[in-house]
Design a protein that fits this description.
Layout lengths: L15 H5 L22 H31 L3 H12 L3 H8 L12 H6 L4 E11 L3 E10 L2 E15 L3 E6 L5 E8 L5 E4 L2 E4 L5 E6 L2 E8 L4 E2 L3 E5 L10 E4 L1 E2 L1 H19 L21 E11 L2 E7 L4 E7 L1 E11 L2 E12 L3 E7 L2 E6 L11
Parallel strand pairs: 5-12
Antiparallel strand pairs: 1-2, 2-3, 3-4, 5-8, 6-7, 6-9, 9-11, 10-13, 14-17, 15-16, 16-19, 17-18, 19-20
Helix pairs in contact: 3-4
Length: about 375
């Protein structure tokens, strides 16, 4: 019979044994030797290699992360943030200590209690820029005060390194601002700033170092005098003072009454003198004859002067004489012409001057006219 596979091409396909040979039969002479089978790795060794590679990767990742964390924790803005975090939380003592700010008992505004009473305090901040110049760095921050941002710049010094890699920065004590108050009133006037009491110097001023904020300012003149209360604002850091606060005192009703009482007491003291020319008084008698002896010398107040108390000037509250008083001087005399009585007057009594201050007893008056310099005498 004729092979039916010839027509469809299958007859030309070689026999399987002619391609692969018999299974298990040795190689024929002249043929290439078969390749040796690969030796499989044991499972434990393979796991070890994979684990080792993973450990190297983890170490690299940990190194990168550690360096990033170390760099961030040693950045120049970290001490600034720590300082401002304490300040915004009202921890004034901690903030001053961390920034190395020196202060003493006279710095009455640099306490937790005083700062708690201030308004427009630092309630937040943001770091705007950090510049590293090697051994120094500057950090610019915007402080949130009273609804607005106030720029402040901080300086830091490099003091060493951690692990020989990361810089250690120390914040230079920032320059604090100050509340400046000028009181047109007696020296040593009591002033309340932010609820803290202090006194003015001889020139009527007081300056208090202060943290950023707005502070209430008032004069405590007791029952004698007062001044309109006001506020002082310190913005940010850098040593800028508040806009100078100027306060003018005015007498209360009790103060004015005491002032006029002090004038009356001064007049009475002059009248009580037995000298023809009372020291420090505004009136005197002249024309004595040296050949006579004068005894029983006496001043008599015929009319008390009327005065008005005005505003504070450089020397005190001004006292002006609105209506002069009058006084008469009398004395017994004896001499070549015999004995008799001498008199002078009436003489104007001027009581112009200044009320310079108050004690617990009342006003203190100083005359601006001495020995009748504005009077004609008699």
């Amino acid at each position: 019979m004729t092979e039916q596979h010839q027509a469809d091409g299958w007859g030309s396909v070689p026999d399987v044994d002619s391609i692969s040979g018999e299974r298990g039969a040795p190689a024929t002479t002249g043929a290439a030797a078969p390749a040796a089978p690969r030796k499989k790795l044991r499972r434990g060794a393979l796991v070890g290699i994979i684990a080792g590679g993973a450990a190297v990767v983890l170490l690299l990742v940990a190194g990168v992360v550690g360096y990033s964390v170390g760099t961030a924790s040693h950045s120049a803005d970290r001490p600034v943030r720590a300082f401002l975090d304490d300040l915004t939380a009202g921890r004034v003592d901690a903030a001053l200590e961390s920034a190395g700010i020196d202060h003493d008992k006279d710095d009455v505004l640099l306490t937790d209690a005083a700062y708690a009473k201030a308004t427009s305090r630092v309630t937040g901040y943001r770091i705007a820029a950090t510049r590293d110049d090697g051994d120094t760095a500057t950090v610019t921050a915007y402080l949130r005060q009273g609804g607005r941002d106030v720029s402040s710049t901080f300086t830091l010094d490099k003091t060493g390194t951690d692990w020989g890699v990361f810089p250690v920065w120390e914040l230079e004590a920032p320059r604090l601002g100050a509340v400046d108050v000028s009181v047109r009133g007696p020296a040593g006037a009591t002033v309340e700033v932010g609820g803290q009491s202090t006194t003015t110097s001889k020139d009527g001023t007081v300056t208090l170092t202060a943290l950023p904020g707005t502070y209430d300012v008032a004069v405590d003149g007791g029952k004698w005098y007062s001044a309109d209360a006001t506020t002082a604002t310190v913005a940010g850091f850098g040593g800028s003072a508040s806009s100078p606060v100027s306060m003018t005192t005015k007498l209360t009703a009790a103060g004015e009454q005491s002032a006029k009482g002090a004038v009356d007491a001064w007049v009475d003291g002059c009248i009580a003198s037995t000298d023809a020319e009372p020291a420090g008084c505004s009136f005197y008698a002249y024309g004595q004859d040296s050949s006579y002896t004068y005894t029983n010398q006496k001043w008599t107040l015929d009319a008390r002067p009327s005065v008005a108390v005005g505003d504070w000037l450089s020397n005190g509250w001004l006292v002006t004489t609105t209506t002069p008083g009058s006084a008469t001087f009398t004395a017994d005399i004896s001499g070549p012409g015999g004995v008799g009585t001498a008199s002078a007057g009436p003489i104007n009594v001027n009581a112009s001057g200044y009320v310079t201050g108050f004690t617990d007893a009342g006003a203190q008056f100083r005359s601006a006219v001495g020995n009748g310099s504005s009077d004609t005498g008699s």
